[in-house]
Fold each of these.
Amino acid sequence: MLAESLCKYNPIDDIECLFAKQQHSTERRSDSEIVVEISGKWDNMLLFFAWEEQLNCLHISCLINLTPEAVNLPSIFELLALLNEDLWVGYFSYWEEAQMPIFKHSIFIDEKDTNLVSKLSQILNIAITECERAYPIFHAVLKQNIAPRRALLPLTLM
């Protein structure tokens, strides 16, 4: 009983182990945070994982490595709203400090959950797929100053 109260479950340990096996670059920032760099179709992406023990909640973020030529927040926020309309899981946001778009999602985790790796795999696949799909659209708006609705046109023609 005493050992249980001293050793709290932390999914960051599982995430670190999972990505180490896949030979990805990881940086453990604290007991509750880890960053993983992965290769993407367009550019490398950073995956951030943060564990909030009080809520039993794992926050997952996927940073898209694109900074705007000139920050046009109304255009960026319009694009975020348009992209988020079609998402079932997670959402896109804009991290002002880094001046980059980011995909975010959170899940509640029970330490008795035996399929955590499966859940994480699903969410990571969704996050990476959505970031890969949105990268050219973000690029058009952030780097080429194309209007958000126009940047989305190729997506609607599919």
Note: Confidence is low (pLDDT under 50) at residues 1-5.
Amino acid sequence: MNLKPIKPKKISDQVFEQIRELIFKGEFKPGKQILPERDLATTMQVSRTSVRSAINRLVTIGLLEHKQGQGTFVASPDSRRGNPLAVAMDTEDATLDDLLEVRLGYECNAAELAALRATEQDLLSMGKTLKEMEEDLSATDRISTEADAAFHMGIAFATKNPVIVHLMRNFYDFLFISIRKNLAHMYEDQNLLQDVMKQHNTIFECIKDRKSVEAGMAMRHHINFVQNYFRNR
């Protein structure tokens, strides 16, 4: 038997995971500069070497990018390459409707599980992204793609299912791009955006009230609403 000693998780791995989650949850937004290594090390109470190692890994997988003389920034999903799903999407000429069908499969189940398992911190995080969306809509007549994607990712994290979280991490770029395309078309009709905002709030209220079946149905209604909008354009 080829058994190996169990080793404690490296500090740099923990830094990597924490920054990665902040990106997926919308705390570190695409295009925004992250804190300098020194500040991250101080805040997380780790060495700058551990922070540098984690950042280099995040750059390698495309979540962060270095800009000469400026610092380190969160990469836009548009600029990322190498995701196996991206290659499959390109070669198969997948459509926005195809993406929405996949989201139905993942996200309705995720909403049901989130209603059963979400912690208070999960609810605070989702509530924060909803507030961002509402403030953007009120101030600019638009909904932030970053906040919208973060809300959906927050639901995935709230499931506490590592397989769902892993799948949604790999699906994140397509979730982000899908949402941005959806919203870009809907900017033509403010009533549609108000409907979308109400749907997000309904999903959240069902999760917060621990109504599992209703949460899944609310998510299905939301994604079907978007599907029908594009199919009837």
Note: The longest helix spans residues 162-186.
Amino acid sequence: MSIIIIKNPEQIEGIRKSSKLAGKILLYAEQFVKEGVSTEYIDDKIEEYIRDHGAIPAPLHYHGFPKSSCISLNETVCHGIPAKDTILKNHDIVNIDVTTILDGYYGDTSRMYSVGEMSIIAKKLVVATKKCLDIGIGQCSPGNYFGNIGYHIANFAHSKGFSVVYEFTGHGTGLEFHEPPQVDHIAGRNSGKIMKPGMIFTIEPMINQGKAKVTVDNHDGWTARTKDNKLSAQFEHTILITETGYDVLTDVSGEYNNS
């Protein structure tokens, strides 16, 4: 049976610092998300920023992943590999996913960007996906079931006519890249394990315009796309369960009223 690690105060402080760095990277990367820029260039700038701040990019060489971040465009659900021939175009929607290792501690976050104006459906999808993340975070409190994160995310996504990817999930993090528990974004009400203070994990809903099913490119073994080639969006934060609620560790803009 997988044990969910309860982090001690020293570990929490280390994970908090790494998470804040990861959040700052996403703000830094925004200036490079422009028409005509390659995703490899953005990845190079991200790696440079991470190393300049005394950290290591966790994705680089992780199970053979060749780059320092995941950059996923349009119908790519996740794990997009930055490349010099992947050039941003007007109306693209882009997810950048970064994980830092700072002094041995992990911080994991992602967000959506747009290249110029988004289409109407893309904007609806991106707005709904961000709301899904916020709904999931709102379920974070000691004594609640992990399944309620996915239950409420899926209810909202379905109410907007979108589907929820079930083949990739959130996860515990902090001392390792991926730890227990698995955090599903579609789940039964009051299912799963109970949240306790000191638990740290990601919520990262991937919401599709069309069907939920994804397919992974055979040629690289990483890039996951929607099976029907319709749009996908994702937002992610690293969350700490506190004695009274939650703390969004990767929030660097003061967006969340941590409880």
Note: Residues 76 and 225 are 4 Å apart (CA to CA).
Amino acid sequence: MMLKLESISAGYGAAQVLREVSLDVAAGEIVCLMGRNGAGKTTAMRSIMGLIPLMSGHVLLDGSDVSALPAYQVPRAGIGYVPQGRRLFAGLSVAQNLEIGMRARRSPPGVLEEVLDLFPRLRERYRQPAQTLSGGEQQMLATARALCLQPKALLLDEPMEGLQPSMVGAIRDVVVQMRAQGVAILLVEQRIDAVLAIADRVAFIENGQRGEVVPVDALRGDRALISRYLGV
């Protein structure tokens, strides 16, 4: 098992959002976290990264308790995070944004070349400031920066939101490639067709509590569960 949430509870101040959520994501698996807006999906991601302190429970990566680490050390432990809204360093170039990813785990130089091979568009834009990129290119850069860590686990919060189809395809292809390389991937995504195309399992979350965890094959044949948890 690669990434494991053990009964994590978390929130903001006195407001509890997550209630004893347990979930595991194996190496080489894509698990999608689905739920309505406000269900706790982003809070779960931020809790894993140590950006929100846990009220109780543990986050384990390969058996090591990463929830005991300060937030800046969580990427160094091997968890890459692509937050919703990308959070790039806008005033810095593509190269400088990637350099920050490389330094986080002191990745060897060859890793940067591998990442640029995955995203040829970024090689073309290498010296451009991040804010001059299109939305899709910025998403590529945020993803590439996380991959510079050589992550064991990768968290992606709505990576395909607002992108044109060609960019969605490019991001999706890279995510599938990471799975093939044995990365454990936890994905928050509302686009049902995108989820059904790449995820292995879907974990539903409702009111901060984990609902059913269902193999994607079962959902393809019966979308009633999706309707129940998402109200679509």
Note: Residues 99 and 120 are 17 Å apart (CA to CA).
